[in-house]
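Aim 2 progress update. The chain analyzed this quarter is reproduced below.
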Amino acid sequence: MSARIRPLALPVALLAMLLIGLLSGAAPAAAAPAPSTPLTPKAAASGSHVTKFSTTLTKKDRTGAASRALAVITCGGTISTPVVQDVPGNPPVTTVNAFCDAPVDSIDVVAIMARNGVSEAVGTDRQLNATSATASASVLCLATKNNYQGFGSAAFVKAGYIGSPLFLSGSSPVVNGSC
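Predicted structure tokens:
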């Protein structure tokens, strides 16, 4: 029986470490230190709150044929604050949008929804040769008052650019409510 459990222990431990790293905003241990930018809250036109972040990737070689590509690519993203409504069928959801002002080789996005400090749902998206990617995570309503918070991260990869891979992460404010 323990022989069946042991093979699952390593993948479960790796997944737990990944989620802890995402929740803490840390890059994976094997990665070189990546630039980070503090998150700043921004109110959206619809009245919902969004947290926004951005930074840049800089081209290594600016000579010859390579000089036709953008020298600097600005990438960033937003994470939405969970909206908790006392309306059946409207579960709290958080959405992470990641984007660049020019195509990059890949964008990987993770959205995590936590209820009362515990990760309850994960959403992911991976886009290749793209300028944007979006992931959402939502939880079922529990007809009791709870704290909800969204966490998100994005990894941007562009060959030949300093700062690649670029890791950005952040969290939304905590929202208290019942639905």
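Residues 2-177 form one domain. The two ends are 42 Å apart (CA to CA). These observations will guide the mutagenesis experiments scheduled for the next reporting period.
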